[in-house]
Design a protein that fits this description.
Length: about 90
């Protein structure tokens, strides 16, 4: 049995179309949206102003126009970030 995937509690967009995701429990991961920008659904997010309007909704990510990504997929497809040095 797999442990439950944590939900996203915070997101920070970057100008290179990556997202820093903070999951419940404090784990930070980096997700690269660039490969998804080729799809018709996410093509509009090439506009950085629109891309930056990402929001956490019910533990997943959502942009205007009902574009969304599920937290479990984001967790699986993202890479862990090292803990910040104090």
């Amino acid at each position: 049995m797999h442990p439950e995937t944590p939900k996203i509690v915070a997101v920070r967009p970057h100008d290179d179309y990556t997202l820093t995701l903070t999951f419940a429990g404090g784990e930070r991961r980096l997700f690269d949206l660039k490969p998804y920008l080729r799809s018709e659904v996410f093509r509009a997010l090439r506009d950085l102003e629109l891309f930056r309007k990402v929001a956490v909704v019910y533990g997943s990510l959502q942009w205007p126009g009902e574009r969304d990504l599920a937290y479990d997929m984001l967790y699986r497809k993202s890479t862990p970030l090292p803990a910040e040095v104090a």
